[in-house]
């Protein structure tokens, strides 16, 4: 496998010869061109570009500079790709790097990014996950071990000027409804810390001023954080600019559906082996608005789950109308309450839900006024029996070990 | 297997000797008592109590009386059950009835119930699904066939007075925010068409006036429409009243995650074989707010899916904040647009998404401002190749067959 | 589903209006004719025709009359079927009968049939298995419970005269090599107890004198005892006589690969729902010698197995040449030795291997002189932890309960 | 992951500083010592030590020197291991080497090793398989692609003197029954080409004269060729000598059950990441005769198989008694006959059965006189529809491409 993008992880993202960018903009020059059916390797930094360390303090998570994220490798051009085509991306492999056999999961402080349960767990926290071949364990979250489902959290093609303008407009309108909210409703273009790949000088500055941030998933895919885009899967991306411009990063060793801890999954540096090809005019032929994909035949399999239900009544007892966000939050809180009965701290339980191969299902979405969401927790990842029985739960953790705090 | 509740499907729900009710109220008398570890059969009508016929007109779907639904069998008491216990329900089997080897799927008219995509498909429509052993096909939706995953859409224990009051209060507050909305935001207590089981006379009238409607899933479970509560699964229900009072109904031969057509899955009459037992004081022991469950080792398995992404930008291009409801709607609309390229009508495609073993995942829910939902469509249920290729889609249906319309 | 063959289980096999036969012969008249694409139900007796009772004595297993077996329902003719066609049989459903919610597993006495491990377990033994919806348990084999994978042990089309002659010749030649062996090497035609369906008088007698016994699987399929021919599977059978003549029986609620107890699986009466169609001239088109089939999407799933290896060195330490029979026997004996450490008797362990969803794999068959076979035992069917750990096994059974003996 | 055994693949096996051996003997010195719970990497040559090239001629397969095989890395000692313990080996990962992104599959000539179907396919043939991340394809076998299930074909602990003597005795007795057979019945000790690791001089010579060949699986495991010992599995090996002495090699990218081509699977060089621990006195505690193991949660999943049956009647029509070897051979021949209808040569079909994730099941083994074996061929690995239909098979290969021949 030819390495198309080779990084030096001892250097900063902006010292990588323009192979990395952290904004979406149509003018980003291709860092390499490939032909249809080419196979090649792309190395990626972790999404923060190395801001988080393998240690027992969450200071770095607390102080993370979110204007920097996400650091992506690319864009890569495919000869012959034109707007309206589908770029078919086979994710042939995803792997770790020999000297980076660990990843991190963090809870952002409410003041700095927050997350799905930030009102319940507002402090910065961190857990480090060591890799053991296909498995991972954490010294901060004992008695749980699972096989990874490695995937890029973020992958997609460059937007066109028109698409970029549409993104900026609709997100600005949302922000305008509550511009001072903490955490923010959305992140507008921000030239601070922008890394614009091979663009330099005034062109780079101009692009950075209007370039889209990388946080949300959008029409082109992007930061979908879909755990099933793992090695062996195949994705069909809409092409918006000449040559396509495929970029990728934010690799995860494992993630639960929803990536509810925001920072996020088990975040890591690593590599992707991919193959690209084209379906000419595929967007129109197949009526595509967002990427579609096929899963891999090689994913970790679990059979025995404990499944938690949540409905769209919030923590204060207020009734929401078919709101799956609220319903899934309740399912997650229910799972956390359950795990705490076995001795886990809330933050540890949350870390498990964010990193382990947890499934989040939209179970019912029409039975007014309650949506019903379910969280599927594989019991086989615990080294004790998690299922209910007549004797009640046994406490397996004595509280001496917890996720790392800031101090 | 002893038949604890035996119905006569030639009779109306209210002619079944008080074995059926269609409201939730703590005063509903037990129709039978069982002991822990008992195993028994419960027969159930379809959720409408026989309002929908096996024919080619959607008039009955258009005119359905929703004040009647859902017709439930029970409540069944378990000796020794007390508030705070967990009632453990093993769903040993779910089956069809010899003379009812068919089910229905409907799109309600927007004026009469609507559904998840009612703004796109506002007309009443119906498809009839014939059962062939474990499989089903529809004369209204050609070229698709799948194994059922039979389950009760609705099952749970009677609420206490306090819980009922809480439900009524929070739902009334929601309704008050837009009382004239069509479809309604929620359904308040309504004595019209109430069937109160063994309650009679003034007691029944008084109960019906405050009894909760059966449509939404709530804290006790109820109408969760979770397709995975299939034969072989095990559910832990909170108990709120003496003897528990377990009721069930709304059987489905198959359903997609979300039950997006509202009427709904493949709806059918049938039976449940269940076993009950108790975990004394289990609610507190395990910190339970909503039912939890374990899936079955016996569920239809698919490997090859086409997966559609949706983000929380609506059909008008408006940006919503981490709204999974909107995101899943986009994923569904994307799947429908795709299926139409092969010749299905929009209503047929919608019917497939509502009935087939489609998975709906909450993939990303923290990447502001976009939630990302995915709809997993098993390609193996089609008798043609549904996957994208360079040649573009082939039209396999000529439009001569469609879902049944009202006229 | 139309019931094509309806039995009265209170009557003997030979009192069923000629709907049952227990020998293979081309002259057996069709008991019913169907058209291609017809769907219908066929009821079946258990393979012994009711010789084994739901009780706690193995006397009936010890004294079973094996000249009677297997009692089959059919043959059923398919209009248009001709020799050389493939008869496509969809096994739409397999079910139990309302009044027969139990099955039996037996170890035949070495003097009367024996079995795979008859030198180790020569006594007649019996275990009764109760059905609980999709699950089964046995009062004779505690602490194990599993979902059934119901299937016909025996199904196939009538042989032609030529095929029958070939069978009789090759089996006679084998018997001639050791005619007095106990158990016998093979079973020659035997008119005693022959039930010849709709054939009567001298024709029946003549046919019975040369008809093939039903015990072995042969070119046409027959007694393959393949547990995966379960509800939802599809089989392609070669047709040898006009109209095909499909017969079936020997229903199993569950069985392990190899059916190593001979009597055999969890044997039961029940029904099959099937659909038939034809591929004209399919035998030649596809180069078919034996039936081929496709599995069901609906089979019990297990993830956690304990896998036992066996090699082709026998119990006396003798080396055999790539003999999978010997290797699988060692794998089975290894599993039994292991299960005994937890308190099971050898016969109980054997009963588990014969009935539970155990897989038997031919793992290596070229590494002279040893074949390697593996037996896959799903650990999830036990209600205790079966896996090795540093503390050694715990004894969970105190020996007070065992399989039923003869007396 | 620390690399415990690092090889130089440009050198010969006997030039690797004694890190490699190709015979089993108790006196082989440990090449390294580890502690219980250590995790480490072991590099392995391909089983032939580099005799087979990535080219289009089968000359190397024809001329392979089988006195050399198998080249194993080790033995590795575990501190504290004593005879009677169980050595628990977690196979954390199995991987390819950066410069060796290919493997080979060969049919040995009948005169030089032969194989399972050597009477049908007696010529030397070869196919080269290229790796594409988790997938593999072959330029010699078009239109088939599958995910690998990488595993060591050979792994186990050193035998004791007593065990070695037992092996040599029983195998010699078998050879003596037909000493001139081609291929041989078994392979006696042979000092020619013996590589004895760290043993040197006369000690090495003496050991080589009695050391066991590596071809067969034996009591200690060894060359089991079990495809399910893949990354993520856990094996319990009996310990026979002080420190255990774990050796491993014969890595496969993928293999079908039975490894029916002998040479064999997709053979490759690569690495294993393993973790070792001990269960003291585990052999007795658990009654272990052969290794037992648990499978991985991460294995390629297929749902749609075409399953071929075989019974123990051989190609000449001769009846064998419950002979699974014969039955599985028939199942394989049936599958080959079928595949040829689509245009594959017999050798190509055989190569598919040897390399692809084909399952071989012992389906029935008690129905005298016929064993029934089944071969499960996943249809999803072909890029065309392999299933029978009314139109008959379509020829997808024109015969211009075939496996490589010798010349």
Describe the 3D structure.
Four copies of one chain form a homotetramer. Chain A is α+β, with helices and mostly antiparallel strands. The first copy, chain A, has two domains: 2-294, Acetamidase/Formamidase-like domains (Jelly Rolls); 305-405. Chain A has helices at residues 59-62, 161-176, 201-210, 282-286, 324-340, 346-355, and strands at 2-5, 20-21, 32-34, 39-44, 72-78, 86-95, 102-107, 125-132, 135-138, 141-147, 151-157, 217-218, 221-222, 234-238, 244-252, 262-267, 270-279, 292-294, 305-311, 359-364, 372-378, 404-405. In chain A, strands 2, 3, 5, 11, 12, 13 and 15 form a seven-stranded mixed β-sheet that branches. In chain A, α5 (324-340) crosses α6 (346-355). The mean pLDDT of chain A is 96. At the A-B interface, α2, β12, α4, β18 and β19 of A face α2, β12, α4, β18 and β19 of B.
CATH architecture of the largest domain in chain A: Sandwich
- In total, how many beta strands of chain A? 22
Terminal Cα separation of chain A, in Å?
44 Å
> What's the main sheet of chain A like?
7 strands, mixed
Keywords (chains A, B, C, D): Hydrolase
EC number (chains A, B, C, D): 3.5.1.49
Protein name (chains A, B, C, D): Formamidase FmdA
GO molecular function (chains A, B, C, D): formamidase activity
């Amino acid at each position: 496998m030819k390495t198309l993008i080779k990084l030096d992880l001892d250097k900063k993202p902006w010292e990588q010869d323009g192979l990395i960018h952290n904004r979406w903009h149509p003018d980003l020059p291709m860092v390499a061109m490939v032909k249809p059916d080419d196979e090649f390797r792309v190395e990626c930094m972790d999404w923060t570009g190395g801001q988080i360390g393998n240690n027992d303090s969450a200071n770095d998570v607390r102080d993370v500079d979110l204007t920097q994220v996400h650091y992506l490798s690319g864009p890569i051009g495919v000869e012959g790709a034109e707007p309206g085509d589908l770029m078919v991306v086979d994710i042939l492999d995803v792997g770790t790097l020999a000297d980076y056999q660990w990843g991190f999961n963090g809870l952002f402080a409410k003041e700095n990014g927050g997350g799905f349960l930030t009102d319940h767990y507002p402090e910065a926290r961190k857990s480090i996950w060591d890799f053991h071949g296909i498995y991972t364990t954490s010294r901060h979250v004992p008695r749980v071990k699972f096989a990874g489902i490695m995937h890029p959290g973020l992958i997609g093609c460059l937007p066109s000027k028109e698409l970029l303008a549409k993104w900026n407009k609709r997100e600005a309108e949302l922000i305008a409804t509550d511009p001072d909210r903490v955490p923010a409703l959305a992140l507008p273009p921000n030239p601070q810390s922008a890394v614009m790949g091979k663009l330099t000088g005034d062109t780079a500055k101009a692009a950075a001023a209007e370039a889209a941030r990388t946080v949300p998933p959008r029409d082109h895919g992007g930061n979908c954080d879909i755990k099933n885009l793992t090695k062996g899967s195949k994705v069909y991306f809409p092409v918006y600019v000449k040559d396509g411009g495929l970029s990728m990063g934010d690799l995860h060793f494992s993630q639960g559906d929803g990536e509810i801890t925001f920072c996020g999954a088990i975040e890591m540096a690593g590599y992707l082996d991919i193959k690209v090809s084209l379906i000419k005019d595929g967007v129109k032929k197949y009526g595509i608005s967002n990427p579609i994909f096929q899963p891999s035949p090689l994913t970790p399999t679990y059979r025995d789950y404990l499944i938690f239900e949540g409905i769209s009544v919030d923590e204060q007892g207020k009734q929401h109308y078919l709101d799956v966000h609220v319903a899934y939050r309740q399912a997650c809180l229910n799972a956390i309450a359950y795990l705490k009965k076995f001795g886990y701290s809330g933050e540890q339980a949350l870390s498990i839900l964010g990193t382990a191969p947890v499934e989040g299902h939209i179970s019912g979405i029409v039975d007014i006024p309650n949506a019903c969401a379910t969280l599927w927790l594989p019991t086989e990842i615990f080294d004790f029996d998690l299922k209910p029985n007549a004797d009640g739960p046994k406490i397996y953790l004595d509280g001496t070990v917890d996720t790392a705090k800031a101090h």
